């Protein structure tokens, strides 16, 4: 069984959310390989996290659900996935 690399777009609840604290919370919730910032507009900045999970049913959904539980996160959505 291989692994799947996923890119998750994490939208904060507002521009006032501390991005560094949010990044730390994401890293604490799941094993993250890389996090980048993507300006959206009006001061809102989304995070894009690259995460590698096992290639098994439900693994990407578990990551997405864990990220949505973080305080300050409005949404977390898998925008890309590929086998590695």
TrEMBL record:
Pfam families, per the entry: EF1_GNE
SUPFAM superfamilies, per database record: eEF-1beta-like
Keyword terms of this UniProt record: Elongation factor, Protein biosynthesis
TM regions (residue ranges): none
MF terms in GO: translation elongation factor activity
Translation elongation factor EF1B beta/delta subunit guanine nucleotide exchange domain ranges (all copies): 3-84
UniProt function note: Promotes the exchange of GDP for GTP in EF-1-alpha/GDP, thus allowing the regeneration of EF-1-alpha/GTP that could then be used to form the ternary complex EF-1-alpha/GTP/AAtRNA.
Alphabetical list of HAMAP family matching this protein: EF1_beta
UniProt record similarity statement: Belongs to the EF-1-beta/EF-1-delta family.
Protein name: Elongation factor 1-beta
Organism this protein belongs to: Methanoculleus nereidis
């Amino acid at each position: 069984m291989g692994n799947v690399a996923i890119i998750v777009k994490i939208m904060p609840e507002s521009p006032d959310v501390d991005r560094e604290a949010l990044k730390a919370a994401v890293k604490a919730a799941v094993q993250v390989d890389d996090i980048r910032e993507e300006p959206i507009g009006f001061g809102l900045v989304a995070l894009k996290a690259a995460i590698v999970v096992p290639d098994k049913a439900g693994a990407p959904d578990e990551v997405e659900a864990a990220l949505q539980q973080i305080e300050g996160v409005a949404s977390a959505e898998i925008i890309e996935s590929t086998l590695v």
